[in-house]
């Protein structure tokens, strides 16, 4: 049976009634009387004690703990909150006079003020072009509590400007390969979910849940699925998504599929986001498995809805958000499970202004396909 915590008003009233009943001849306590003030002070202290006990109760279990207590509960299962990571690219292009030197550590600015640092010295070639690797400079957590890692991701073609001019080099350059790998400090709810998953699924020496947990421990990775024998006997496939970063690839990982760069097996090596996950798994996986980390291909699902063609933009946006939520929760590239029409209809029925709709397409449950991640396609109103 749940405990009903009394409010401050209730505690004050209880104290006043108690004093009035226990002291003879006092009568009704006046607002500023000594006994009235004493009753209110005592009620305030009791309210603080109730608040502290409530706080202790929340921190006493992994399911409701927060902040440093959540981190402590998670550490018991060797699960740690993911720090912000900086975006990086190996190919940034400078242009200038042949033979010009650009020193390592030079700062580059994006149009919105986000900064990057040159990782290595660059010398422009005979054609006037020079190429170097750059890494984002994470902002001070005191000014950006998210860590600012995801903001550093940027597509190929992004223009950056030298913070301080360099002799013989044009001020503006261009990103050749996308800036990827940037991720914010892990959200507390996602951190708690990973911790609870670890408590609920003890290590099994290389079971599906182990590969999922190892993948989710990598910064920027938000979802993961396992596909056994993806490339034949002895292989394990891991599909990943990086939903926190929609700047470059709509949540899909940026990189190429393959195995860890630490593997000596003659197979393609994963790069980018896939490479980071493959290398992280390599350090903890069973020695007999050959792990492939892959990006799923999008599987657009078109919808045709009748009966509400005159609905406003707000209603249509709510409908598409509801559809996207159901697909996000139930779609997977491991070929298991399905997206049920009943769940889509239930989600739409919760939107007040969508009353009277009829879903014409799809008209049957949507089965997940191996290697494909369902996404919302075209939503048509007729």
From TrEMBL:
Residues 301-381 form the Baseplate J-like C-terminal domain. Residues 93-181 form the Baseplate protein J-like barrel domain. It comes from the Bacteria. Residues 203-295 form the Baseplate J-like central domain. Belongs to the Mu gp47/PBSX XkdT family. This is Baseplate J/gp47 family protein. The lineage of its organism: Bacteria, Pseudomonadati, Pseudomonadota, Gammaproteobacteria, Enterobacterales.
């Amino acid at each position: 049976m749940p405990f009903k915590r009394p409010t401050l008003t209730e505690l004050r009233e209880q104290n006043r009634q108690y004093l009035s009943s226990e002291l003879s001849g006092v009568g009704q306590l006046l607002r500023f009387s000594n006994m009235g003030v004493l009753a209110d002070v005592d009620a305030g202290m009791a309210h603080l004690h109730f608040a502290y006990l409530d706080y202790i109760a929340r921190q006493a279990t992994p399911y409701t703990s927060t902040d440093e207590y959540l981190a402590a509960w998670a550490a018991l299962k060797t699960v740690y909150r993911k720090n912000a990571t900086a975006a990086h690219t190996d190919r940034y292009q400078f242009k200038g006079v042949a033979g010009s030197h650009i020193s390592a550590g030079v700062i580059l600015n994006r149009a919105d003020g986000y900064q990057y640092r040159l990782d290595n010295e660059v010398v422009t070639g005979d054609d006037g072009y020079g190429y170097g690797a750059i890494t984002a400079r994470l902002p001070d957590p005191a000014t950006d509590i998210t860590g600012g890692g995801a903001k550093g991701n940027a597509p190929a073609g992004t223009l950056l400007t030298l913070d301080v001019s360099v002799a013989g080099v044009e001020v503006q350059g261009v990103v050749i390969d996308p800036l990827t790998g940037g991720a914010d400090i892990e959200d507390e709810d996602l951190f708690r979910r990973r911790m609870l998953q670890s408590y609920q699924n003890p290590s099994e020496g290389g079971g599906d849940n182990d590969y999922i947990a190892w993948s989710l421990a990598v910064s920027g990775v938000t979802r993961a699925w396992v596909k056994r024998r993806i490339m034949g006997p002895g292989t394990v496939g891991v599909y990943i998504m990086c939903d926190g970063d929609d700047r470059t690839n709509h949540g899909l990982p940026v990189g190429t599929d393959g195995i860890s760069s630490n593997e000596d097996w003659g197979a393609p090596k994963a790069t980018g986001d896939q490479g980071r996950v493959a290398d992280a798994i390599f350090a903890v996986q069973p020695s007999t498995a050959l792990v492939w980390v892959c990006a799923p291909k999008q599987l657009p699902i078109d919808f045709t809805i009748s009966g509400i063609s005159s609905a406003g933009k707000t209603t249509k946006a709510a409908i598409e958000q509801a559809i996207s939520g159901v697909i996000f929760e139930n779609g997977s590239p491991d070929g298991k499970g399905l997206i049920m029409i009943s769940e889509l209809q239930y989600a739409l029925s919760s939107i007040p202004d969508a009353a009277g709709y009829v879903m014409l397409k799809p008209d049957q449950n949507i089965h997940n396909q191996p290697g494909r991640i369902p996404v919302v396609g075209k939503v048509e109103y007729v």
